[in-house]
Amino acid sequence: MLKRFHLNIDPVGLSFSCLTYVFLLYAYYVLIGVVIIPLMNESIYGCLNGVLLTILIFLCIISHLKASLSNPGYVSILNNKYNDKPQISQEGYTTCSKCEIYRTADSHHCGICRKCIKKRHHHCPWINNCIGELNQKYFIQFNFYTSILCIYGIIFLMTSLIIYPDEIQTSNRISPSARVYHSVFVIVECIVFGLFVFAIMCEQITSITSSCVGQKSNHSETRKSCFDNLGENLKLKYFQFCQVFGQKNPILWLFPFDFRSNSNFKFQGNNFFSV
Asked: PANTHER family in the record, alphabetically (predicted)?
């Protein structure tokens, strides 16, 4: 079994990951340090918004770290060389000329990670990692919580600009004009970043519900409906979400933690294809 956590040493990916944290922490600073503390520190409204914002930022960072540092589903190279299992080529598996291993049809090679990954969707520079079978859950959660945070930030900052247009405590060094500049910049950031992550989240959900992941969606047979009956089709989609999120309870899908009873997935019972 491969290690569950890793870090890709890719300058581009590391730069984009750091930029993600800069965006998140800057928005947190503006919302807390520029708006809530100077204007609402003595109100229940300010305290509740501060707690909610902190929880959202925490969930965003944890889900991003989990997606970045988790093994996305690397196909093990142990006991999995061309010469070790020559009969596998007759059992519906494909081969990777770069890794020189056998793999299932839904596995694909990543040139950046330099490994084959089970149910690989794409390599995302924003998390400096591939999106695969074992970390797609965290990637969707990061996009989900970031979308909520962006919507929250837009509504909260626009409301504060309307209610407190020129108010600022004299003990605070931030002037009203600086608060407006910071607020407008974060609103623009939330709009651009929010639309981006929301579109990615919808695409990820679509890939699950349509029974295809990444390159598999290019095959015409995966576009056929698995069941004609609507009820059975909904059950299938629910089962697919359970496979991705590792739990039958949808409430647990919201938490960026591993609830799978067995994280060592096997490919159709072949131990040398473990990830």
From this structure: PALMITOYLTRANSFERASE ZDHHC16
